[in-house]
């Protein structure tokens, strides 16, 4: 029995030396100290020994069991240390390596162009006005000389919320609101940047886009003042050699009205595919404020005159940066945005 116990101890120590993981160590524990372990089986068979041998064998078996438990504990600590070291090596960070710089955000091209437009007109003495995007039909149409059932409403496919409330189709309602607020005082000299909404969606239109409206009211305002203001804007936005062309047009809230073109930014007026060989590109609409609009705003058209203009920020952005599809501005493609 003594020889058998010593052999068990020797085999257990050899098995322990081969253990590299906690699972292997647990297998050794079960093999020798488990309910059916080899040492446990020896202890259970002590009842068959002569009475005089039991104390000696019992003492030796307990010593071997204590020795195995101590060895298991020591090997367990060693394996835990090795596993921790392995984990630390795998997760180590070399603090001498250069850091990974985070991606920095950039200003959207629409924001860049809108800010430039604001700065140009602020430099000419304009102030900025804002108004609600959810607008009353009265301010969006009627106060701008577009009564109900007027055919001009067909030019703007609108998003109606109720028969009298809609998403504004242009920033012009702020003109009417500003005139109500400032009447009868002059001068009025404002621009109105903001979002507008129409039922359009293709390469050159979006259901949501940005406009900048301009309004000037004072005594003796003439069409030449409008032309000079827009020429100054075009040259600051597109270059000092820029020229403009005014073509007769129709807008219910201005009379006379004009579409404004600039010499093509691609071919410098020589004629190309972009300008359809005309040498000109349309950028905005404008005109002298209609007397009826002045009256509805609380001004006497016999005493004051004014001019107004409106431009699409997306249109200006596409011309400034040579873009061929407005949808690039709304798709949030990082590869596109990184160009600006």
TrEMBL record:
One of its GO terms (biological process) is phenylalanyl-tRNA aminoacylation. InterPro entries: aa-tRNA-synth_II, aa-tRNA-synth_II/BPL/LPL, Phe-tRNA-synth_IIc_asu, Phe-tRNA_ligase_II_N, Phe_tRNA_ligase_alpha1_bac, Phenylalanyl-tRNA_Synthase, tRNA-bd_arm. Its main location: cytoplasm. It comes from the Bacteria. The keyword Protein biosynthesis applies. GO terms for molecular function: ATP binding; catalytic activity, acting on a protein; magnesium ion binding; phenylalanine-tRNA ligase activity; transferase activity; tRNA binding. Its cofactor is Mg(2+). Its EC number is 6.1.1.20. Mg(2+) binds at residue 255. One of its GO terms (cellular component) is cytoplasm. Keywords: Aminoacyl-tRNA synthetase, ATP-binding, Cytoplasm, Ligase, Magnesium, Metal-binding, Nucleotide-binding, Protein biosynthesis. Binds 2 magnesium ions per tetramer. The keyword Lyase does not apply. It catalyses: tRNA(Phe) + L-phenylalanine + ATP = L-phenylalanyl-tRNA(Phe) + AMP + diphosphate + H(+). Residues 113-339 form the Aminoacyl-transfer RNA synthetases class-II family profile domain. It is found in: Cytoplasm. Tetramer of two alpha and two beta subunits. PANTHER family: PHENYLALANINE--TRNA LIGASE, MITOCHONDRIAL, PHENYLALANYL-TRNA SYNTHETASE. Belongs to the class-II aminoacyl-tRNA synthetase family. Phe-tRNA synthetase alpha subunit type 1 subfamily. This is Phenylalanine--tRNA ligase alpha subunit. It comes from Thermanaerosceptrum fracticalcis. The gene is pheS.
